[in-house]
UniProtKB/TrEMBL annotation:
GO biological process per UniProt: GDP-mannose biosynthetic process; polysaccharide metabolic process
Domain Mannose-6-phosphate isomerase type II C-terminal as annotated: residue spans: 340-442
Protein name: Sugar phosphate nucleotidyltransferase
InterPro entries associated with the record: Man6P_isomerase-2_C (IPR001538), Mannose-6P_isomerase_type2 (IPR051161), NTP_transferase_dom (IPR005835), Nucleotide-diphossugar_trans (IPR029044), RmlC-like_jellyroll (IPR014710), RmlC_Cupin_sf (IPR011051)
Pfam family, one: MannoseP_isomer
GO molecular function, one term: mannose-1-phosphate guanylyltransferase (GTP) activity
Domain Nucleotidyl transferase: 4-270
CDD domains: cupin_PMI_typeII_C
Length: 456
């Protein structure tokens, strides 16, 4: 069995800590067994490893999230990069062609698909492994996991099984699906023995490859990558699952949660406060998550979430906090904090002069033994002011040592890179036209960058 973990999302529901590059699965607010902060994706990957599935797992994600995945899980984690965001059917189709044409797995092998961020116990992933046996025993095209509801939720879709004993009690044939209902509808669905659809399913690889062939879509990964932008933006549920006639469901009665909103996420946080600040004793069921360097004080607030990051500040009643998505969904919000493979950066200031020149100031932290790629810009100049740590800077063919207090001027067109010997912090000032496409990367590894250089 191979696993495809879907890592997407636009980072709206946990704003301001989440954004387009750091979606909810990457926010480190959960505590592990050593009382260290970890993200949802780190927690899930450890669970997969504990049941022997990590070595068979691949993460399908966008280019903007790939570095963050490698930063949190390691550079060796298998990643399948989508050329653009086009919903779950294109993502799963692309990942399947990768397994077929790049990895070379058999068409009879089972592929399981699941979100990268479910909050579950380790036993849940044993159920994922069981999908392989159920798929072969039932002769179905798709096998799902349905979660036994604990309350009539309006947030989830539902799976309604057939009322039949023709199948083993271990799994049930699926009669139909129901979209997110209102409260009364959810109660009726539970009376019909419906289950929450947790977005976990399995199929034989040959099932999907045959489907792509019938749709006249490429089954070779390179070719589908070229045509990826032409695929419809549609979910796998709509395009495949709900049109399939042979579907069975594995019931699951254990713990399962989608920590996709502040009110659900704070239920699983071990501490009421992360970051600088204080919460008064008469503030009940109130959480503070603060990524800023300034303290936040909370007095006399009940059932509230206060979240602060360089991207903004949220103060909300927990039950109302899911509405944040409606407030920010049509707003272009600049990303002011981002984690990268080499460390992180935080935007301190941005301005645009009357002449049209842009000035962006960043605080950048490069973790020890990591480096920023060798690159250049045609439309902007940069100034690096080292504030702590030690490192090496390559400017064209010369490598120089830098430490706190050093200032490096980088004119437009000059090739440059920097490596941290210890944790290294710099203030970077960019001046000119600040376009993402003006980053011309030449080499990634420091071994390649340092080759044929003159060390001063």
């Amino acid at each position: 069995m191979k696993l495809i973990l879907l890592s997407g999302g636009s980072g709206k529901r946990l704003w301001p800590l989440s954004n387009d590059s750091r979606s909810k699965q990457f926010i480190k607010v959960l505590s592990n067994k050593n009382n260290e902060m970890e993200s949802m994706v780190q927690r899930v990957w450890k669970q997969l490893d504990s049941v022997g599935l990590a070595s068979s797992s691949y993460i399908a994600t966008s280019k903007s999230q790939s570095e963050l995945i490698q930063s949190q899980l390691g550079e060796d984690v298998p990643i399948i990069i989508e050329p653009s965001r086009r919903d779950t059917f294109p993502a799963i189709a692309l990942a399947s062609t990768y397994l077929y044409s790049h990895v070379g797995i058999s068409l009879n092998e089972v592929v399981a698909v699941l979100p990268v961020d479910p909050f579950v116990e380790d036993t849940f992933f044993n159920e994922v492994k069981e999908l392989e046996n159920i798929l072969f025993h039932s002769k179905a095209d798709i096998a799902l996991i349905g979660v036994k509801p604990t309350y009539p939720s309006e947030k989830y879709g539902y799976i309604v099984p057939e009322n039949t004993t023709r199948f083993s009690a271990r799994y049930l044939p699926v009669q139909r699906f129901a979209e997110k209902p209102d409260q009364a509808g959810a109660e009726r669905l539970i009376e019909q023995n419906a289950f929450w659809n947790c977005g976990v399913f399995a199929f034989r690889l040959g099932f999907l490859i045959s489907l792509l062939e019938r749709k006249r879509l490429p089954v070779q990964y390179e070719e589908l990558t070229k045509q990826y932008g032409l695929l419809d933006k549609i979910s796998f549920d709509y395009e495949v699952v709900e049109k399939c006639e042979k579907i069975v469901m594995l019931p699951y009665a254990g713990c399962w949660k989608d920590l996709g909103t502040w009110n659900t996420l704070t239920e699983e946080m071990q501490s009421h406060q992360i970051g600088k600040g204080s919460i008064s004793k008469d503030s009940t069921n109130t959480h503070l998550v603060n990524e800023l360097d300034i303290p936040v004080t909370i007095i006399g607030m009940t059932n509230a979430i206060i979240a602060a990051s360089p991207d903004g500040i949220l103060v909300a009643d927990k039950q109302a906090s899911p509405r944040i998505k409606d407030f920010v969904k049509n707003t272009e919000l600049p990303i002011r904090y981002e984690e990268r493979l080499w460390g992180w950066y935080r935007v301190l200031d941005y301005t645009k002069t009357e002449e049209g020149s842009e000035v962006l100031t960043k605080r950048i932290c490069i973790s020890a033994n990591n480096n920023i790629s060798y690159h250049f810009h045609r439309l902007r100049k940069e100034t690096w002011n080292v504030i702590s740590g030690r490192g090496l800077v390559k400017l064209e063919n010369n490598i120089v040592s830098v430490s706190a207090g050093d200032v490096i001027q980088i004119p437009a067109g000059l090739k440059h890179a920097i490596k941290a010997l210890t944790d290294l912090e710099i203030i970077e000032i960019q001046n000119g036209r600040l376009l993402e496409e003006d980053i011309h990367r030449l080499q990634r590894s420091w071994e390649e960058i340092a080759d044929q250089s003159i060390v001063n």
